[in-house]
Design brief:
Number of strands: 6
Protein name: RagB/SusD domain protein
Pfam families: SusD-like_3 (PF14322), SusD_RagB (PF07980)
InterPro entries: SusD-like_N, SusD_RagB_dom, TPR-like_helical_dom_sf
CATH topology of the domain at 46-203 and 535-574: Serine Threonine Protein Phosphatase 5, Tetratricopeptide repeat
Order of helices and strands: HHHHHEHHHHHHEHHHEHEHHEEHHHHHHH
Oligomer: single chain
Largest sheet: 2 strands, antiparallel
Number of helices: 24
Subcellular location: Cell outer membrane
Shape: globular
Distance between the termini: 32 Å
Keywords: Cell outer membrane, Membrane, Signal
Helix content: 40-55%
Length: 574
């Protein structure tokens, strides 16, 4: 007979048993709390409101750096797109097998709910700023707290709008359970985030004395992105006039960042290692003590903060585990020639997420190969054999040998997923903490949320969408010129599928951009076409048999919202 005694039933009986056994001692169970925390009494000072905001900064840092190595965050960083996939040893974590990806997938729920957690924290801080018993040092202090909270709320809705489309807008702290949330449209979601950023922009500082806090340029960057997203959606809905107005605003806000005098592309060597002959200016951007605007890096708009001393003392999440999570595993894939976990193989990599062949090779094919971002110091392709029995010991190991070290074709295909070029963004030749026992898994430098390069590429896209292909090409060439790329694009290269811009984003922003946001924001079939074309594993081509340009609303959210029907996004209906 089928066993129907589930775990749920078991724990229910345990609770009942505990209740019965304690019934005669019910005084023990009675609680007499002196107070309950509410929005009204949880905050006593403006400093406590600031701490609520610091909690959001911390959450965003962990969401980006992923110090706990959570699989769903790797998806947020681009796993399953044209740019990244998983290694053969991690096929169970693939995000390109659409036989397994549906509205019940926990990744969608984790991402969706995390941004609503962020919204709840921002709403809590906003309500606290209006409490009558809170005193502020000045009107400016209060305005700054409000601006940061509205920035974070906009940041969350920007992500929700780009990934999921129209979602419920929540502006207050919920005090009772609610089951009747209503979806807005994607346009309304974008507009709400825009309104928050417009309100925040004036009260955010131009610069700060220390890195990490949001500044005016960050708000302007996201305004450029959101107006671009808004215009793209309006154009898809046939509202051409309104779309063009949105593109014009996108260009204007991007230009405030690009041409406003605060930020500039770094074009000459700078920073802590600028006197070393081996580097170049692009490499300098990703060295310790070089990432923040306060370090002399005028390209840095908004950065996350990592502190090695704090990591050692109390904050075990203050790290970038990039060498570990993004690093190659030559010791498995090319073990006859390359082994170990030292700097010579890019550190202690375990290949949680890997660059596709598109990311490592295709974007540098032909005339695009001569590019500083493809130089060995930036995107290392030369690895010296370190196995004494190898004929390549002490010599560069050819990729043909690395990729084809086995007589078995399947093994070779799998090994290609373990061995790949190493970006200077995920590894270094000087690891901090080795003397303290660190094992070359982590970087202890700050990292970028927004770098001016992305603002330039947003403006290029807005110009192209507004009909100015020559202007779009000129913006792309700002980056190609800085990279000393021999080929400069022209208006003729700016194709209607935005391949030129997407390829340039891959060259410039590998391991930096949130690729899913970019692809889904672009609408149409751009995302699915590129996934089918460039995904590393063949499951994508075999199972992605439908088109979509939004992720599904998590089924758990739809089922829980029992009093109002939340419509599912196209392509994901059961």
């Amino acid at each position: 007979m089928k066993n129907i005694f589930s775990k749920k039933t078991f724990w229910a009986l345990v609770l009942v048993a505990n209740f019965v056994s304690c019934k005669s001692n019910d005084d023990f169970l009675k609680e007499n709390p002196e107070t309950f925390y509410t929005v009204d009494n949880a905050f006593a000072t403006s400093a406590q409101i600031d701490q609520a905001l610091v909690a959001i900064y911390s959450q965003i840092r962990d969401l980006w750096a992923n110090p706990s190595e959570e699989g769903w965050i790797f998806v947020l960083r681009g796993n399953g797109t044209d740019m990244y996939d998983v290694a053969s040893i991690r096929k169970g974590s693939t995000f390109n097998n659409y036989g397994l990806i549906n509205a019940d997938n926990g990744t969608f729920y984790n991402i969706y709910s995390t941004y609503y957690q962020m919204i709840a924290k921002a709403n809590l801080a906003l309500e606290a700023t209006n409490l009558p018993h809170i005193s502020f040092a000045s009107d400016a202090e209060k305005a700054s707290l409000v601006a940061q909270a509205r920035f974070f709320r906009a940041y969350a809705y920007r992500n929700l709008g780009e990934l999921f489309g129209g979602v419920p807008i929540v502006t207050t702290v919920s005090k009772t359970p609610q089951y009747d949330f209503k979806r807005t449209t994607r346009v309304e979601t974008y507009q709400f985030a825009i309104d928050d950023l417009l309100a925040a922009e004036a009260d955010l500082p131009e610069t700060t004395t220390a890195g990490g806090r949001v500044v005016k340029g960050a708000a302007q960057h996201y305004l450029a992105e959101l107006y671009l997203a808004l215009g793209t959606q309006l154009a898809a809905e046939g509202q051409g006039g309104d779309a063009q107005a949105a593109f014009t605003k996108s260009i204007a806000y991007a230009s405030k960042v690009i041409d406003g005098g605060t930020y500039a592309l770094m074009k000459t060597r700078f920073g802590a290692r600028s006197t070393e002959a081996q580097g170049n200016v692009y490499w300098d951007l990703f060295q310790e003590k070089n990432v923040n605007f306060q370090d002399g890096n005028r390209e840095a708009v908004w950065t996350l903060q990592v502190d090695y001393a704090a990591y050692r003392a109390e904050d075990g999440k203050s790290k970038l585990p990039y060498s570990r999570t993004y690093g190659a595993v030559f010791r498995d894939g090319a073990k006859d020639h390359l082994t170990g976990t030292l700097e010579d193989v890019g550190g202690r990599g375990i290949a949680q997420i890997i660059p596709t062949m598109y990311t490592r090779d295709d974007i540098y094919a032909g005339k695009y190969g001569d590019d500083m971002r493809n130089s060995d110091i930036v995107f290392r392709r030369t690895f010296i054999g370190n196995v004494r029995t190898s004929p390549y010991f002490g010599k560069p190991v050819p990729w043909e040998v690395i990729y084809n070290g086995s007589p078995d074709a399947t093994t070779n295909f799998n090994n290609r997923s373990l061995c790949y070029p190493i970006s200077c963004k995920i590894a270094t030749d000087k690891y901090t903490g080795v003397a303290d026992g660190e094992n070359m898994s982590n970087l202890f430098r700050d990292d970028y949320f927004i770098r001016l390069s992305e603002t330039i590429l947003l403006r290029a896209e807005a110009k192209q969408r507004s009909g100015d292909k020559a202007g779009a090409a000129a913006d792309v060439n700002l980056l190609r010129e800085r990279a000393n790329a021999s080929y400069k694009v022209s208006a003729a290269d700016m194709d209607d599928k935005f391949n030129t811009i997407l390829d340039e984003r891959a060259r410039e922003l590998v391991y930096e951009e949130a690729r899913w946001n970019t692809l889904l924001r672009m609408g149409g079939t751009i995302a699915v076409e590129r996934i089918r074309k460039y995904a590393y594993w063949p499951e994508a081509q075999a199972t992605l048999t439908f088109d979509y340009n939004l992720w599904p609303i998590p089924q758990t959210i739809i089922d829980t919202n029992k009093d109002v029907v939340l419509e599912q996004n196209p392509g994901w209906q059961r």
